[in-house]
Amino acid sequence: MRLHIILRYIGVVLLLNAAFLLISAAISFFNGDSALFPLGYTGLISALFGVFPFIFVPSTEEITNKEGFTIVVSSWLLSCLIGMIPYVLWGGEFTVTNAWFESVSGFTTTGSSILTDIEALPKGLLFWRSATHWIGGVGIIIFVLSVLSSMGKVGMVLYRAEMSPLATANFRFRTTRTLQIIMFVYVGLTVLETMALMLCGMNLFDAITHSFATIATGGFSTKNLSIAYYGSAAVETVIMVFMVLSGINFGLLFVTLLGNMRALLRSTVVRFYLAALFAGVALTAFNIHGTVFSGWLVSLRYAAFQVISIGTSTGFATTDTTLWPPFSQLLILFFTLQCACSGSTSGGIKIDRSVLLWHAIKKRITKVEHPHAVVKAKIDMVAIDEDTLEASLLYIILYIGIVFVSSLIICGMGVDIMTAFSASAATMGNVGPGFGLVGSTGNFNHIPEMGKWILTGDMLLGRLEIFGLLLFFLLKKWK
Predict the structure, then answer these.
(1) Cα separation of 186 and 138, whole Å?
(2) 39: which of 25, 103, 130, 464 fits an S-S bond (Cβ 3.0–4.6 Å)?
(3) pLDDT score at 159
(4) Residues paired with residue 152 on neighbouring β-strands, in sequence order
(5) pLDDT recorded at residue 165
C-alpha cells in the first residue's frame, strides 16, 4: 500500500471536519460561550494535519481496493478521534471514555449519549454534536466525494468501499451522478425540514440541529427531554414525516421527485418498510391504550412517534417507553434490529435483508416440495444471485451473533439483561435508546467504562456493516 496516497485522501476528510469545527467555533464566538477554544483549537489542528498531505502529496489516477478500504475505515476512526477532542477540552461530564463514546455515537448516527444534562453544553458544542450526525449520516467518504467530484477512478473505488452492496444495487446511475443524487436529496430534505420546524415554532438553531439529527437518522437533541420538550403535535408530525422519508432509499426518492411515483410504489422493499411501520404503530397503539394512555388519539400519537423513531434508527423520544407493556417493548426491539432501507441513512439489519430472508425461505420450501425444480429468488421481478443471497443471510447471522456476545459480556459486568441486550442491539443498529437504564429518557452514563468501549465497537461495526471493519483488520492477509 502507498501510505502517502492514503494520507492525501484522509487529509481531505480532516479538512471536512475542520470546516464544521470552525463553523461551530464561530457559533460559540457569537454566543460568547465556553466552547470557543476547544472547537477553534481542534478545528485548526484538523485543518493543519489535513492540508499538508493534500497539498504536498500528488493526486493519482488509481488506487487499489486495499487502499480504498484503508482510506474509508481510517477516515471513520480518525474522524471519531478528532470529534472527541472538543469534548475532552471542554470538560464537564466528558472523560476520555465518555468523549469517545459521544463522538462515535455522533458520527455513526447512533444517538446514544452519556450526558445527564445536555442543556448544560454551550451552543457551539451542541452544534458540533449535531454536525457529527450530519457528516456521518450520508457517509464521510460520500460527503467528500460529492465535493471533489473530479476524483475519477479513485472515487469509484472509495464509493464501492463506503456504500453497502445492497445500496449500490438500487442505484442505476454512474458513480458521479449517484453521488450528486444522494447529496441533492440529503441537503434538500435537511433544508425542507428546517423550514417546516421553524413554521411549527422552533427557533433557527433548534430547527437546524434537529434537522441534522432527523435526516441523518441520528437522534441527538439539544434538549434533555428530546422532542418531548416541545410538547407539540405539529413538531412531532413534521419529524415523523422526515424520519420516514430518510429511511427510504435516496435513489428511489430522487426518481419519485422526477415524477416517477410508480418506482416507489412498486418497490417490494419500500412496501414492506411502510407496511411494517403501519402494523407496528397499530399494534403498539392498541397495546398501550388503556394501560399507559386512556385515549385512542393520544395512544396513536405516542405509538406512531416511538415506532417510527426506532424503526428508522433515529432514536428521538416523546415518552418513556420503559413503562410500556412487554408486548410493545418487544415490538420496538424488533424494529431496533431491523430498521429501514438500504441506500438511506438508517442503520440496523435493513429491510432489504429481511425481504431477502423471506425469499430465501420461500425458495427452500419450494425446493423441498419440488427437489428438481430450478428456483430463483426474485425481488421486483429481478433474480437475486446466490452470492448476494448468501452474503445477506450470513450478515444477519453474524449481526445477531455480535449483539448476543456483546450482551453477554456487558451482563458479566453486572448490568441487568434488559439493559445489556437492548444497549447492544441499539448501538449495533445505530438506533440510540434501548430499555432499562438506557431507555428513551435515560442515558448510557451508568454503563461500565469497558462496556462503553464495547458498545462503541458495536456502533462502528453496525455503521460499516461489519465486513468493512473486519476487512480493515485483515489487510495484511489481502493478496
Answers:
(1) 7
(2) 25
(3) 46
(4) none
(5) 56
User: Of 280, 336, 282, 343, which Cα lies nearest the Cα of 313?
Assistant: 336
pLDDT of amino acid 123:
96
Residue 257 grid cell: 421527485
How far apart CA 266 and CA 145 sit, in angstroms, is 30
In three-state form (DSSP H/G/I as H, E/B as E, the rest C), the secondary structure along the chain is CCHHHHHHHHHHHHHHHHHHHHHHHHHHHHHCCCCHHHHHHHHHHHHHHHHHHHHHCCCCCCCCHHHHHHHHHHHHHHHHHHHHHHHHHHCCCCCHHHHHHHHHHHHCCCCCCCCCCHHHCCHHHHHHHHHHHHHHHCCHHHHHHHHCCCCCHHHHHHHHHHCCHHHHHCCCCCHHHHHHHHHHHHHHHHHHHHHHHHHCCCCHHHHHHHHHHHHCCCCCCCCCCHHHHCCCHHHHHHHHHHHHHHCCCHHHHHHHHCCCHHHHHHCHHHHHHHHHHHHHHHHHHHHHECCCECCHHHHHHHHHHHHHHHHCCCCCCCCCHHHCCHHHHHHHHHHHHHCCCCCCCCCCCCHHHHHHHHHHHHHHHHHHHCCCCCCCCEECCEECCHHHHHHHHHHHHHHHHHHHHHHHHHHCCCCCHHHHHHHHHHHHCCCCCCCHHHCCCCCCCCCCHHHHHHHHHHHHHHHCCCHHHHHHCCHHHCC
Q: What are the φ and ψ backbone dihedral angles of 379, each rounded to 5 degrees? A: -130, 125
Query: What is the pTM for the complete model shown?
Result: 0.93
Tell me what pLDDT residue 150 has.
47
Query: CA angle, corner 16, sides to 13 and 18, nearest 5?
Result: 110
Q: Which residues of the chain have pLDDT under 70?
A: 60-61, 140-177, 474-479
- What is the grid cell recorded at 116? 445527564
